[in-house]
Write a structure and sequence with these properties.
With about 325 residues, the protein is mainly β. It has two helices and 30 strands. The protein has helices at about 1-20, 30-40; strands at about 25-30, 45-50, 50-55, 60, 70-75, 80, 85-90, 95-100, 100-105, 110-115, 120, 125, 135, 145, 150, 165, 180, 185, 195, 205, 210, 225, 235, 240, 245-250, 260-265, 265-270, 280, 295, 300. Keywords: Signal.
C-alpha cells in the first residue's frame, strides 16, 4: 500500500512540475506556418513569430484553458497584414494571450468572438478600414492593455472605433467584464476611442490616453468614450482633441447607459468649438432609475464645464 501511494504521488508531482505534456513552443516565420499553428495549437502552447510581414487573414477556433492559455507572441516588427477582412480572428477561441505583434491593413484588426479570458497585451493596431479591436458575441472577461491603436476608420463611414465592446441594435451581446487598461488610442481614429455598447456590463476602462484628432463626427462619433452599457468604472484616463465632448453616455435601449462611475479622468477640451462642450455629457441621468456618478476628482481644461447642466458632481 505504501508503494502504491508513493507511486501515485510521484505521478501527480511529476505532472505538476512538467505541466501539460503537449505544451510546445512553435517557431513561425511564414504566413503558411502561422495559419497551421493557429489551427493546431493546444493548451499551453506558445506560437512565436519571427520579425517579418505575414500577409493574409489569420483565424483560430481552438481554445486554451484557464491554467494553460495559448500564447501568440512576437515583436512589433512581426506584422500581420490583411488585404481586407479581419487581421486576426479569435472565433470561439478562449484563453488566448496575444502579445507584442502588429496588426494592420484589413477591415478590422483583432476580432474576438464568443470567447472568454482573451488577453491582448502590448500590440500595435493601425491602418484599418473600420475598428481596431472588437470584443463581440458575448466575449467575457477579455482584456486589452499596454497597446497602441491609431489610424482606423479609413473607409470614412465613422466606424473606426479604437476598441469596440458588444454590438449595436439590441442587448443580446453580453460581452461583460472587459478591461481596457493603459492603452494609447489615437490620433486618426475615425470613431470613438472606446465604444461600450448596450447589453454589456461591468467593464473597467483605466489608465488610457486618448487623442481625438481625426474624429469624423459621422454616426455621432464626437467623444473619446461613449458608454451605452451598464455599471462600468472609467478612471484615470487622459484625453485631448475632441470635436464635441470628452465622455458621453446614451440610452440606446431602455434601462441601459446607466450605473457608470467616472473618477480621476483628465479632459483637455481645448479646440472644441461652440457651446455645450463638456468633459462629461450625460444624456440619460435619473437619480432613481439611471444614475451616473461623476466624482469631483475629474478635471477639465477648456470647454464649457465638467458636466452638462443638471448632472450632480460628487
Amino acid at each position: 500500500m505504501k508503494t502504491a501511494l508513493f507511486l501515485s504521488f510521484g505521478v501527480v508531482a511529476a505532472g505538476l512540475v512538467a505541466g501539460p505534456a503537449h505544451a510546445a513552443t512553435i517557431d513561425v516565420s511564414t504566413a503558411a506556418q502561422l495559419k497551421s499553428a493557429l489551427t493546431s495549437a493546444k493548451a499551453g502552447d506558445t506560437i512565436k513569430l519571427a520579425d517579418g510581414t505575414y500577409t493574409g487573414n489569420f483565424k483560430t477556433t481552438v481554445s486554451g484553458s484557464s491554467s494553460s492559455p495559448i500564447t501568440l507572441t512576437g515583436s512589433a516588427k512581426a506584422i500581420l497584414t490583411a488585404g481586407g477582412g479581419y487581421g486576426l480572428h479569435l472565433n470561439g477561441a478562449s484563453y488566448w494571450q496575444v502579445k507584442g505583434i502588429t496588426v494592420t491593413g484589413g477591415q478590422k484588426g483583432i476580432m474576438i468572438d464568443s470567447a472568454t479570458r482573451v488577453v491582448i497585451d502590448g500590440v500595435t493596431v493601425h491602418g484599418l478600414d473600420m475598428e481596431g479591436v472588437h470584443f463581440r458575441k458575448s466575449s467575457t472577461y477579455g482584456t486589452i492593455r499596454n497597446s497602441k491603436i491609431y489610424d482606423t476608420g479609413n473607409d470614412g463611414r465613422g466606424m473606426g472605433e479604437g476598441v469596440y465592446v458588444g454590438s449595436a441594435g439590441g442587448t443580446s451581446d453580453k460581452s461583460d467584464n472587459v478591461q481596457i487598461l493603459d492603452n494609447t488610442i489615437g490620433p486618426d481614429v475615425g470613431g470613438e476611442a472606446i465604444d461600450l455598447k448596450e447589453g454589456t456590463t461591468g467593464g473597467r476602462v483605466a489608465g488610457n490616453s486618448f487623442d481625438g484628432r481625426g474624429l469624423t463626427g459621422a454616426n455621432y462619433d464626437d467623444s473619446w468614450i461613449d458608454v451605452k452599457g451598464n455599471n462600468y468604472v472609467i478612471e484615470n484616463n487622459t484625453g485631448k482633441n475632441t470635436t464635441n465632448n470628452g465622455f458621453e453616455t446614451h440610452t440606446q435601449q431602455s434601462g441601459w447607459g446607466c450605473g457608470t462611475v467616472f473618477r480621476n479622468n483628465r479632459s483637455d477640451l481645448t479646440g472644441a468649438t461652440g457651446s455645450g462642450r463638456y468633459a462629461f455629457n450625460i444624456t440619460n441621468y435619473n437619480a432613481s432609475s439611471c444614475k451616473v456618478t461623476i466624482d469631483r476628482s475629474n478635471t477639465v481644461t477648456g470647454g464649457n464645464g465638467l458636466a452638462n447642466p443638471g448632472i450632480p458632481i460628487g
